[in-house]
């Protein structure tokens, strides 16, 4: 059997699931469905036991998420090669990067392309559909998976195809998102399927189609990969060249133009979890149709979705309302308006609100920091540095820092001095001091950091050395 190389698309910001999902920590990296494993981990895990699959995955993500992605895959023992997309250019260029890398070893390898933020409840049915698709893909076809619709949905694109059992059939057309009346006709007619955005084709077949139908995308991606920088686990395409690529989806760039498009029906409890209402559909509810997570009290409520992260949330006499509470933001919306959260996020972006990009707790390769207080002239953070981790050797031009260890032990570099701090011990880092925190010990170290200065932005940093390849960066 030809080898199957999973390609996981891990870009996107998941704005409709704000405030849980944010651009620096989007929905695919969150445990939204199970509360334990993340959506990325679930995507990788559903490949277990699939005959013919190669051991590694190819994961396409952006620079800001690379360490989160690597750590999450390491936690489930999933080997991966991570391609760092310089900027989001939709799915056609993203998959081109993966196909070019795969073709360097085997142009006949079958790429199983999957977004990282989908839910598939019936893994066996999914794997069975992949097996059906393998035969067609092996003969040079570009196979997509059409979801058997369960309701008239106006938020999805559709694929028109005449089903023939579970076999792969020719795609007759791709259809844009319909109005409700048209969607009802599609569902009752039996010849239209939801467009899943999942594909199976050989690396060579896809690149040939891209060269034919979207040569500007092909040329930019090919050259950017030729000029890439390879690390141990990461491949970084050339940014300037990649940005010459047009932004386009696989559907528009290739699938709608080729006569080799085929579809395999998929009935496996699929959801793209595109809104809070959609997420509730795949979560457990009580007898009143309520989904709750966290410290929640309700009285006389039905059909509610309430998620409390940091404090008590109480609701009385409400029906079909979504309440999502985080440490720094709270969303309240009617369930039937949950798709409109994206428009709200767009407003926040226009006002350059940090809540669009970052949670209060921000994860870094070495651990995380939580902004406890932020006022003019000072800021208080709680740093958690993981065992074996080390921050960059750095200095600041505008702020001084006071550090107090409240749990564990830290090794501090301050100019030419290196010393350890234990619980209830502290040090002062003046403006311009070269400094570093390391944790060579067995337990996480927690540090309260008080920053003082006329500018406290995260970009006030000069990295002199960094174990994570971030020298010279300010993020």
Structure description:
The longest helix has 16 residues. The protein is globular. It has three domains: 268 residues, Spore Coat Polysaccharide Biosynthesis Protein SpsA, Chain A, CATH 3.90.550.10; 67 residues, no CATH class; 105 residues, Jelly Rolls, CATH 2.60.120. The chain has eleven helices and 31 strands. A hairpin with a 3-residue loop joins strand 11 and strand 12. The mean pLDDT is 93. With 475 residues, it is an alpha/beta fold.
Helix content: 10-25%
Structural class comes to alpha/beta
Overall 3D form: globular
Give the CATH class of the largest domain.
Alpha Beta
Arithmetic mean pLDDT: 93
CATH superfamily of the largest domain: Spore Coat Polysaccharide Biosynthesis Protein SpsA, Chain A
Q: Can you summarize the main beta sheet?
A: 12 strands, mixed
* CATH-derived topology of the largest domain: Spore Coat Polysaccharide Biosynthesis Protein SpsA, Chain A
Count the domains.
3
Task: Tell me the radius of gyration.
Answer: 24 Å
The CATH architecture of the largest domain is: Alpha-Beta Complex
End-to-end distance: 44 Å
Strand percentage lies at 25-35%
